[in-house]
Design brief:
The complex is a heterodimer. By secondary structure, chain A is α/β, with parallel strands linked by helices. In chain A, 28% of the residues lie in helices and 21% in strands. Chain A contains 13 helices and 16 strands. By secondary structure, chain B is an alpha/beta fold. Chain B is globular, with a radius of gyration of 26 Å. The chains are: A alpha/beta, B alpha/beta. At the A-B interface, helix 5, helix 6, helix 13, strand 14 and strand 16 of A face strand 6, helix 3, helix 4, strand 11 and helix 8 of B.
Chain lengths: 439, 311
């Protein structure tokens, strides 16, 4: 068996026009950008071109340097592995002699500025700062490392080139704009995808009211085989702008389709369906929300971060927005709709963080094949509780469970391993189950 | 198990037939995987179920025993399989599994290496994620365990996606032929640090490793080894809290006119009812949720790391 597989499915190198995730200074700033020769990145008061990032491996690291023609991003060549320089816990040093009177540093701001103008590299400035710090030698090796890192972030900021995946896109939104994705944390998203049995060649019914993150994550798992069918109440599809971040190929985009619920349900279940009523109740809400293709993504790309004093960033000048790629979210083809009516969808996945889950579930569940699994996300517990109870009463599903994922990250360092001091305490609730045949 | 085969995929019309693998669902905590065979019967506490009664019924149907007891017949999924498979080793559960697939960025077409195979709980989900064009190569040094896993993948219809090898990965590393070919690697080994240098060779640039270890000392050593040529080293613990949903009758406080007679609340209510003075106000039952009182408190630490990019 050949191990060589089509690598263009899973590109490892950036290209002109691709969307990337830029991680500045080890997670301090995260932003999406589109790589074009004209796009720029602003770090602090310096603006540099993203051109050098085109054609590089995802995972490459860059450092902001100042050259003759101004600031530029230069690839970082990691100088071997900096061995943990004896960060011992039983070191005799401590902070008893530390006096915080702001006189420890003898280099002045003007002197540093002068060095920068002369083209001294960021790394050299960091070394100069250390050499001119009266207290550096008295610090424990652990806090020396901290000091070095802090100065490096300021004088030699680093940019890590990341490939946008469902994982990194979800994490980025969760960190920056959790309300836009209804507080869906990455572990909840992964649970949804597993429990809804998402795989290539499925026909997945999606109700995505979190801007397209769910749709994109489902499509990523299906690799352009089968269909991701986004359904909606009323006449306006829900916006799915986040899908654009995923760098999907045309094949994958073509498999992301939309269809109003009324159309999917038509003739299938005419007695239980009362077109109009469920639609109208939601319409009022939908009409006020932005139409598809709104500014969501661009907003995300240029919003300056105000809570970070060292780095104010804006990215990617709003150059050619024209996406040459096939657009995701086209209308579902007639034949597909017909086939779904005959066979049913193979699973359902929903994220409706601001709506009553049950009123939607009772409409969409009959569209699933018997024995099809479903997974529903909500930021509140109560709507899922009601939904689960009604599914039980109506004998519509079995294996029902409400789960709340809990995720804790650890700092692992020699003699200094412990959970992170700050953690996310909430990532949402997930209701899962399997549709049964009630006849 | 996977919808690659258009004849067998789930549909309103897809009925149970001879030779199908079905998940027999008694309760959420009691399920069993059974291969349908016309002449066979299933006997459990609900009575005797004839397989021949099942054939021709849609998946998701309720079927009855001679005594009138019933079970549901479900189509297998990796999640259901994880709940029914025979535990030859400690297995990975759903929260860890789904997080691993997501964090390893596995998509259709990926090549994934795994060791050890164990009971194949994770391998099943890995196979679903790489299908239809990718492949999972999984290794276990225990010959019999590898053989049982192979049988299971045959049973679940995943053998075209998963190859099980017998090999001591800690001692020998992964086979040379996978050098630079793996998109991601998963390790569940007692001494993962021994295998990490080999993983570094197997991964493509920017490829990701995950190591699962129950003990923090294992994590500590793995991370020390990883620092040499991996980056983005992150360790997580992921757990699930489940909720019980019940309809509860809550008696509302009735006012203090009866305070004088010091009776426990239940007695008091009875008394009111007996009197039938119209004061009783049985509030309608309310559906409420609370966390289940028992839960898995620890499974293992998941350490992820990315192979450093040669500039």
């Amino acid at each position: 068996m050949s191990i060589e597989l089509n690598s263009n499915q899973n590109p490892k190198i950036t290209w002109e026009g691709c969307n990337v995730l830029l991680d500045i200074n080890d997670g301090d700033r995260l932003l999406f950008a589109r790589l074009t020769p004209g796009s720029t990145l602003k770090i602090g008061n310096k603006s540099c071109s993203l051109q050098p990032l085109i054609g590089c491996h995802f995972g490459s690291l860059f450092q902001l340097e100042t050259g003759d023609k101004g600031p530029f991003l230069s690839p970082v060549v990691e100088v071997s592995n900096q061995e943990e320089k004896g960060c011992k816990i039983d070191e005799p040093k401590d902070n008893r002699a530390l006096v915080d009177n702001n006189t420890a540093q003898s280099l002045t701001g003007d002197e540093i500025e002068a060095m920068r103008r002369e083209g001294v590299t960021g790394d050299e400035i960091v070394e100069a700062l250390i050499a001119n710090s009266a207290t550096f030698d008295k610090k424990t090796s652990f806090s020396q490392e901290k000091y070095r890192l802090k100065k490096q972030k300021k004088y030699a900021p680093r940019v890590l080139l990341r490939r946008p995946f469902a994982r990194s896109i979800c994490e980025t939104y969760f960190k920056k704009y959790p309300t836009r994705i209804g507080y869906l944390r990455v572990d909840s998203l992964s649970l949804l995808l597993s429990m809804a049995n998402i795989t290539a060649h499925s026909d997945v019914l999606v109700v995505d009211m979190i801007g397209g993150l769910l749709t994109g994550a489902v499509a990523e798992r299906m690799g352009g085989m089968g269909y991701v069918c986004n359904t909606y109440l009323g006449v306006n599809p829900y916006p799915i702008d986040i899908v654009r971040m995923f760098n999907f190929s045309d094949e994958i985009c073509k498999r992301i389709v939309q269809s109003p619920l009324a159309e999917l349900s038509a003739r299938e279940n005419e007695i239980s369906l009362q077109p109009g009523q469920p639609e109208d109740s939601c319409n009022t809400e939908k009409l006020t929300s932005p139409p598809p293709n709104s500014v969501n993504m661009d907003e995300l790309m240029v919003t300056p971060e105000n809570n970070n004093s060292e780095i104010l960033t804006t990215a990617a000048s709003p150059v050619s927005k024209a996406c040459k790629a096939a657009k995701a979210g086209g209308k579902a083809p007639e034949v597909a709709i017909k086939s779904w009516r005959e066979t049913g969808f193979s699973s359902l996945i929903m994220a409706v963080p601001d709506m009553d889950a049950w009123t939607i579930v009772k409409e969409v569940l009959p569209l699933l094949s018997f024995s099809a699994p479903f997974a529903i996300y909500h930021q509140y517990l109560q709507p899922l509780v009601t939904c689960m109870h009604n599914l039980q009463l109506g004998k519509m599903a079995i294996g029902l469970q409400i789960a709340e994922p809990w995720l804790r990250e650890y700092q692992v360092l020699p003699s200094r391993t412990h959970p992170h001091m700050q953690m996310s305490a909430f990532g949402g609730y997930v209701l899962t189950g399997t549709r049964i045949c009630s006849t | 198990m996977l919808p690659t085969d258009s004849v067998k995929r789930l549909s309103f019309k897809r009925c149970v037939s001879e030779g199908d693998l079905v998940i027999v669902y008694e309760r959420h905590d009691n399920m069993k995987a059974i291969k349908v065979c016309e002449s066979a019967v299933l006997q459990n506490r609900f009575g005797v179920f004839k397989h021949s009664d099942w054939i021709g019924k849609p998946f998701g149907s309720k079927v009855f025993s001679s005594k009138g007891g019933f079970v549901y017949l479900l189509a297998p999924t990796p999640e259901l399989w994880t709940l029914v498979l025979s535990h030859r080793t400690q297995i990975l559960y759903i929260a860890d599994i789904s997080f691993v697939i997501m964090y390893l960025e596995i998509v259709p077409g990926c090549v994934v290496l795994e060791s050890g195979t164990g009971s194949g709980s994770l391998s099943t989900s890995l196979a679903r994620a790489v299908a239809p064009s990718g492949h999972v190569y999984t290794f276990d040094f225990h010959e019999q365990r590898a053989a049982s896993a192979r049988e299971d993948f045959e049973k679940t219809g995943l053998s075209s996606l998963v190859t099980v090898g017998v090999r001591d990965i800690q001692g020998e590393g992964f086979p040379e032929k996978f050098t630079g070919k793996a998109d991601s690697v998963f390790l569940d080994l007692p001494q993962p640090w021994l295998a990490i240098p080999s993983v570094g060779k197997m991964l493509k640039q920017d490829g990701i490793l995950c190591s699962f270890s129950p003990c923090i000392e294992q994590v500590q050593r793995s991370c020390e080894t990883l620092r040499s040529n991996f980056t983005d080293i992150r360790t997580f613990e992921v757990l699930l809290r489940t909720y019980e949903v019940r309809e509860v009758k809550m008696n509302s406080f009735q006012g203090d006119e009866d305070r004088s007679t010091e009776l426990p609340p239940c007695k008091r209510k009875q008394r009111l009812n007996e009197e039938g003075n119209g004061l009783e106000n049985p509030s309608p039952p309310v559906v409420m949720a609370r966390p289940s009182s028992e839960a898995r408190g620890h499974t293992g630490y998941l350490t992820f790391a990315r192979l450093k990019c040669a500039a």
